[in-house]
């Protein structure tokens, strides 16, 4: 497999943009990434377009990428639509990497765009449930209050189990949100940039105990894009080179026992890249809820089992800490336009590895990790993706 | 890139199965393909799952493959959901090929499953329209009779233009249907196996002139699967080896002028494989309507412009002819469970290249071509896929 370089990145701001559609968001992220890379549209040999919920939110099922990108010069090159729920963007990135690494094309595009806000909120909430098996969902929805994401019940149940085993408290989850907002306040792209206090987080509306509103990832619109190129092409471009050192996708086991797919994806990525958790300088992870980020510290090997909360309390994972996690604000504060999220993680980490992250920069960042999970099968996410990037090869 | 072998194939019968779901169809096709290949489920390193319309027909948006395959031993290996409208299965096949050709895995699965029939027919028809840009669709739907696929208006307009330029007549389109049913009558998998006469085709209900009901591809449920392996793995398996010689995906140009994406995909596949149209012994093409197949003879280089209808009239493309096209019945008679179709084409051609097609066998078949188009952007399909297979490397 050839070396692959992240040569261009771009994204829209994430937020509630009722007047914008998938096309307008995708076009903005794409043109930013193309300009950043300094490539021509005509060089892009393969496009992977990630979108999870347009079928149910906007009615555009199938050929979503071709519809979103039809006014761009990408038409004429293959556009492949992919979906793996919250890991859709990571899946697009993985396939773009594969197409360059394998020599199929020298320049590939991974782009994710999602339009979730709708004047009728029940459309958005209904679509969100689609990341769960339709049979399980019927059961969960009977249990859940109306207009309520079934995912938050799954997350709250996990949070309660984690509190029991680790001694973590709702105050810790609130602290995670404070950290998240602090980071987001330093990012121009984040949906929620207003700092919050632990008191504010704890007193926000209870969604599914112990999760309050601020502990749950919000609904957002947005798009993000990454252009991946071969090393030969990268040499002709101006940006500081960021290399893809591993890109692994792992699905849930059907027994639901043993390590989660996030753990297994991380192990595979560490093995493939030769890096270990101790080598990671900065990470972006799938904090669909505040406790999820803390549990991921353990699943990714940053902390021992039930010790993740210590990293948080000690400030290790804050901006300015040794291992900032979600310096871009994560899902909780950057926002979560589903298909775009996995690529927005890459945008943030590439910015960090280029040394361009301004006040949220991890000084000396050379190795970075992104983790994103998608959907729900039995007790685990349906799939997890782990990517490792570095500023050297 | 490594040589890639189609080592296992399987499919369900195609038809109207109101009592079956995507999972049941996918499981049947998968177990047939695994048994045919003689591989273990655990060897499958990567799965590409094609489905186009479940979001709108069954409500299962996102993680469709994980939901369909959750009771199989595939869980634990990556499952990637892809969609490119009618070319969804071809896209899954392309990516499975890429993952083996690139060395990412030694055994990959392409599987397509679609559940289209619904007790409420308007659900099915509504979903079908989703292969058209949502904005164009709104316009087309105002023009179309209720419960009517907007695609057939697009196809009928093309058919009328083709009749003008080529001199083809509705009788020719009826003859195509007679040929299609003749082939399907020899296949155990086809939805419509009852021979028809040109009179019956011409007198079936008018859908969108000149297209009668029999000239339009039907609604079907079904699944198909193909297991692709590296040449090393293939040597340990018992089946006669069928090689993937080219797998090309091409999107529509945004200007809509110049050659169609089917033509361009064919040109790329010929160039990549070193074969030309004169080398093809048997083909499966995207006959979403009867005239479409005739036009494809020209786009794929089997006939000169406006001369396609001659091949049909002379019996060249019938079972028993020099170049049988759609010996498996095509979309018109095998049926068209959207996500499964592109892989069902591969199933038929692999059967032909193994010499196992019984009464519909093209004697001496060594080189085969599959073409599948998906969606609609402006004047052209959104995307076309062309695959070339051969019984030798």
UniProtKB/TrEMBL annotation, chains A, B:
<dbReference type="InterPro" id="IPR020613">
    <property type="entry name" value="Thiolase_CS"/>
</dbReference>
<keyword id="KW-0446">Lipid-binding</keyword>
<dbReference type="Pfam" id="PF22691">
    <property type="entry name" value="Thiolase_C_1"/>
</dbReference>
<feature type="domain" description="Thiolase C-terminal">
    <location>
        <begin position="259"/>
        <end position="380"/>
    </location>
</feature>
<dbReference type="InterPro" id="IPR055140">
    <property type="entry name" value="Thiolase_C_2"/>
</dbReference>
<feature type="domain" description="Thiolase N-terminal">
    <location>
        <begin position="4"/>
        <end position="232"/>
    </location>
</feature>
<dbReference type="GO" id="GO:0008289">
    <property type="term" value="F:lipid binding"/>
</dbReference>
<dbReference type="GO" id="GO:0003988">
    <property type="term" value="F:acetyl-CoA C-acyltransferase activity"/>
</dbReference>
<keyword id="KW-0813">Transport</keyword>
<dbReference type="InterPro" id="IPR020616">
    <property type="entry name" value="Thiolase_N"/>
</dbReference>
<dbReference type="InterPro" id="IPR002155">
    <property type="entry name" value="Thiolase"/>
</dbReference>
<keyword id="KW-0445">Lipid transport</keyword>
<protein>
    <recommendedName>
        <fullName>propanoyl-CoA C-acyltransferase</fullName>
        <ecNumber>2.3.1.176</ecNumber>
    </recommendedName>
</protein>
<dbReference type="Pfam" id="PF00108">
    <property type="entry name" value="Thiolase_N"/>
</dbReference>
<dbReference type="GO" id="GO:0006869">
    <property type="term" value="P:lipid transport"/>
</dbReference>
<dbReference type="InterPro" id="IPR016039">
    <property type="entry name" value="Thiolase-like"/>
</dbReference>
<keyword id="KW-0808">Transferase</keyword>
